[in-house]
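--- STAGE predict ---
source: upstream dedup step, 1 unique chain passed
mode: sequence only
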Amino acid sequence: MLQAIVNNPAKLHSWIFALAIPAALTACGGGDTKIVERDPIPIENDHDHDDDDLTQGRLLVAIKDQPKVSIWDIKDAALLEEYTLTEPANALYASPSYRYGFVMQRLTNKVNVVDSGLSQEDHGNHKDDIIEAPRMMAFGTDKTRPTHFTGTETQSVIFYDGNGDTSTPAQVGVFTEADIKSNSAGNKLEYTTHMHGAAQARDNYLLSTIRDPLTTSTLPDKVGLYKAANGIYSEQQVFTETCPGLHGSAQNETQIAFGCTDGVLVITQTGDSFSAKKIANPATITGAARIGTVLGNEHNTEFVGIASGQFFAINTTTAAITPLSWLATGVTDTTALAYGFADEGELFVILDNKGWLTLLNTNNWSISTRIQAITSNLSALPTGSRFELALTPGHTVYVSDPIANQIKKIDLDEAKVTGSLQLTSTPAKIVWLGIAEPAGNHH
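--- STAGE serialize ---
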């Protein structure tokens, strides 16, 4: 997974972040609702800040080695609620509106959804910001091995790998915000065999992988086009271009890219027509290395691919895959942990194992700046822990520090840490949930 898409440039208002929290907190489970009506705000500068408490947002945090997630109010540095799961969450994702948080529990075949309590109603001439207590939704899934999550501006997509040992086939579930709210089934694609696959939704269409059941590999090697009707996707075409060892996918405004052992498969949508082409690996990708992770953003025509820890710019116009230099001069023994497009696609952010953020300008892929997000003693990092990155629709990101049990707030415009949230337990995965104003369409 997963990155924010904003069709109408949106500013995420500046947030005043509390530096500490009392040692003991009580869960806030009240049912009060606060509605704040807002007139449209003209946009003069995409990076203007506004001290609006409503857009502080909330953080959903998976607790290390525990079957629990907690949700925190950022402005008040307050623990609002904690929920018990079937097993420790292996991944967290935000829904397109950022209202809901998907909690993935792959080994026990569970996906739960937490409502942040922050939402927005559009009344045409104004918008109402709704502030409520968070809650665990009735919506959830129990399909086998929920693994890959992708999103569009209106849809959340889960690829369930299935299980070869139990002859359980793979599935894909595509859900809108309305499906989550009403606990509906959404659209689904059902396979006849298991696979470690990938899927990308495009409105009524779905680009999803195909695996030959006679092969021993769990990885697919083809992509099919499917269209939804009455909740079921049916096959429209299978692209002749193959993608051996397919792993990783992403999309931008007009294209969908899949990582292959021998390059990248790129599918272009023009109206209801889809065409495919293959971009071969450059000579710099050798041996067993292959692009197994792909990232995209609606505001960028180029994709980013990752092969064995090396980043590449994928230019679909010139059919070129070019290495990116993201390590500063003199920096060694450094590996990337988390990454993604930020600030409406203007930046590509990389969090490394030393606790630094590297910001790349996406217009020319040069290093914009580096920010030391973590200052704790790295040798004290708990076994099995790592730093995690949470992106937002704007110019702010969050980085978890499992050494100090904190979450750091980083302003990308100011290129510095501007606050810390003290937690009551060790964080694992984190994701930002909330309202981005003015309202827009988000990934």
